Amino acid sequence: MKLASLRTDAGIVAAAVVDDEVVDLSVAAPELPNDAVAILISGEAGAEAVARAIASGKGRRPLNLSELESPVQNPQKFIAVGRNYLEHVKEIGEELPKDPTVFSKWNNTIAAPYADVQVPAVSDRLDFECELGVVIGRRARHVSEANAPLVIAGYVCINDYSVRDYQMMGGQWVLGKSFDGHGVVGPWIVTPDELDPHNLPIRTIVNGETRQSSNTKNLIFTVERLIAHLSGAMTLEPGDLIATGTPGGVGVMENRYLAAGDLVRVEIDGIGAIENRIVAEPTPVEFIGEPAAL
Length: 294
Known about the structure:
With about 290 residues, the protein is an alpha+beta fold. The chain has 2 domains: about 1-70, no CATH class; about 80-280, Alpha-Beta Complex (Fumarylacetoacetate hydrolase, domain 2), CATH 3.90.850.10. It has helices at about 25-30, 35-40, 45-55, 85-90, 165, 225-230; strands at about 1-10, 10-20, 20-25, 60, 70, 80, 100-105, 110, 115-120, 125, 130-135, 150-160, 160-165, 185-190, 200-205, 210-215, 240-245, 265-270, 270-280.
């Protein structure tokens, strides 16, 4: 099953994707939540309701990729993992890590799968990172690797856009990873029954040139290992998003950064693709909002 977030005149609604068509679930199954993650959290009952909606033929129309929003709208936590592919660790000249390298991306980064992505006004060192994303579906703490699959709602493509000079400021990565709109997620959530997360070809294509190409079998720390590690430190909540790391071939290693006009596509076989036109940030204007009403 593939669940998406669809932009309509009535707002953002949950949708199911079937081949080259989309089923607006607010029309075909109005009893369901208008949120893809919430439907997945509801488990078997939600899946059965979606199957009935698909079979009904209601709310069905051709899929327009530009109408898709991020299938994960507002995760409580957007957790990212660095140095988690063999070839990426080799290209940066480091030894294999003994434990996962974990950092965070903030929710302001969440962007639609086909949104424009800005080169920030304060830097010209915008880089790409294709990543397999894991969507958490059940509240979980101290989960074993054996039971980790029980808490996974599904998988997405992520482009962890990174502003490299800001990433290296101050000895931590968070700021360079958290510019507005630099966490592209989509195109939909694919449920775990449809794929093996550790055997998925993954690639980044920039202006038609393949810049990253690997397979998730090359992950150093598996999805299950990451969930066990993270849940030992924090309670994972439904809708939390984990970006599992990027393979070799990132632009910073060749001093090849993204510029306005570039077209960046991330593909993961078995899930789909996300694609972004790179644009320049408009001339910055200082903005201070009105004080909140008491």
